[in-house]
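Tutorial handout. Part one gives the primary structure; part two gives the three-dimensional structure as tokens.
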Amino acid sequence: MTPTPTPSRLFPFAVALASFATIALELLLTRIYSVTMYYHFAFMVISLALLGLAVSGVALYLFPAFFARRSPGFWAALAMLGFSVGVVVAMEVALRNPISLRGWRSNGGTLVAIYLGASVPFLASGFALSIAIASAGKRIGLIYAFDLVGAALGCLFVVPVLPPLGGPGALVAVAALGACAAGIFALTDRTKARHLVWVSAVVAVVMGILAIREPSHHLFGQARNPDKFLGKRTVLFEKWNAFSQITLTPAAEPDHRWLFIDADAATRMWSGDVGKTGYTVPRRFSEIRVASLVYALRHDGTALIIGPGGGTDVISALAHDVPRVIGVEVNPIIVNDVMRGEYAGWNGDLYRHPRVQVFVDEGRSYIRRSGQVFASIQATLVDTWAASSSGAFTLSENNIYTVEAFGEFLDHLDARGILTVTRWYDAASPKEFLRLIALGRAALERRGIPASEVQRHFAIATDNDRRGTMLLSRAPYRPEDIDLLRAKVAEGGLRLLFTPGGGAVGQPGGQPGTEDPFLHAFLEAPSADAALAPLKYDASATTDDRPFFFYNLRGPQLLSVFGSLGKLGTMEINNLGVAILLLLLLLSLVMTLLLIVGPLLLLRRAALRQDRAHKLRVLGYFLCLGLGYILVEIGFMQKFVLFLGHPIYALAVVLATLLAASGAGSALSGWGNTRFGFRGFVLRATLALAGLLAIYALGLTPLFHALLGLPLPVRVLVAILLIAPPGLLMGTLLPTGVRVAGAAGSDMVAWAWSANGAASVVGSVLAMSLSMNFGFTIALGIGIAVYLAAPILLPSPRLPP
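Part two.
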């Protein structure tokens, strides 16, 4: 297909706005799906919906005569109007069809409906962008540059728009932007498409008004899931930001209320009246008593609390007369809008208490920059089940639960300080809790403590329900420490699972009053690796390079998770994520074959026979670009999370800079092609890119450690300067390939664009699979290898006869 070229200067701006709206939709749907479903499903549906970008290219290739009847501006305008309507359809389907974990098989129809609904807008914008690329001709560098820069700005859109508009309102705003893009495309048409300008204007205005009214009137409904912890409770407060939805509801008892993150993860906010009783009332809950054991041992110095949420751990510290409490909470809505904002009077202004300071920051980054030492560092059930804005490209990594993180925490404790972490404990299958202990042991051994001495630094207790607390001391516990701990455990109706030299009798899990022989055996073993090797699950310590704390399957077990889908009640929610990741990889491959490869082979096989080797090499080149780009992108996001302090910053800075720099590279590709030739330029660009990425793989971590004390704006600037060069080089490669594909006057451009899109979809799943099993550095290394294959595959251009 070769659509009529469009000389209008407005065309690139329409392309940028269409790309802007597409990536904003992707990120916003991730937020909605994280509330109405779970982050696993957000990953699945978004990735599958992106196939629309590839399928549209196939349609252009298969039916060139049909699309050649009208100008690119007309078809792109029509497609973006379809996008605008499709956004509302996708949102309505998501809001009306929450996923239940109680009956996996009953969700089949719901998932199909959600997928089809999400596919509509992506397929529509895919047509608009594919038409733009296919009709670009000699302006491919400029058009692709605007496409990438628009996408970069779309990454930033979700940050300012979500707080005032909320999830549904922000999506309607994206629909309005899609209609604006349709209007600009229509203006570029010089035939009969001018009436589409007025239609687009009306749709944009209507959508804009609806977006403004949505937060207060809930015209499209609220994001809810009755099977989540929030359920159907009365909502007193709701606010969104780029990585969460925060809701506040009443509790069964009047002295506290519940704060929910993405309708599921919950934290209590206590009434200010609890201060009148010395902050002791919350101790009626056993999980609070077990989490606060550290203050029985260390209450004479500064306590640092990571993720204080509604303030339960802060209250526990105050109840034990801790002189200074520092909380580090990543979510500004919880701190500024709830605890110090609208409900400060109700909670007694806890976060302005004279002995309390609460900072909005990521815990590990704060600790690394603080330069302080603490008597205790506490983290209670801090996890990442709620999807961040990069949920379409992450599963469940958490940089708090890594060996390097625990080492940093120990470095910032005073001589007898304690790191205390509370997590879920299942005596029958302690996968998660055993990994937590393995992390503590590995961190101690990295500090030079011999294996024979490690167990002297541990004390572990449980609330006899579902929670366990690890108390990891920087110095070996003294006998008087253990005596005091035993007394507090007995007083609180709790149970010790491990103390140095404690009584390990009974069966694994122990009986009331006994310690756990399984945990004793692990901590007293000469080698942690040898002790963990016979287990059926993987409980080895996670690292910064492979930070998937909740991923506990060994390689041969991966396929076995499919057998558990029919009996989801016995399946951990973490393994559900793995199952869906694998299912997504399979479905992506199948749908790529059915919707992209199959139609091309069946309907245009004759075209493929002509100069087959040349065309296959072109397709291989574009597959390498799609796969390599996504591998590098995901690797970079993870590498920069710690440096920038939060996944949302990594997403905004890394993705936006990478796309913008790639846009600049695209604009410069024409100069490079002219000076060095197509293959010569690609070879130089890929060699430079591979060398630069190899340096980054080895050198970024020590560089970040050296620069972490810089203020956030300076760190953002450093990140931009580091990300821009490889982004610039990557951006030069696709326009060069498009020029080679179209040099002979063939219709290979649309096919190549489809191949690139399909590789990105499959590559995003493959990148996560590689990262989970081998680490981000290996995934980045494979990305380098894929890029190095590109110049080998790229053929010399074939000129028309």
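Part three, for discussion. The first strand starts at residue 237 and ends at 241. The mean pLDDT is 85.
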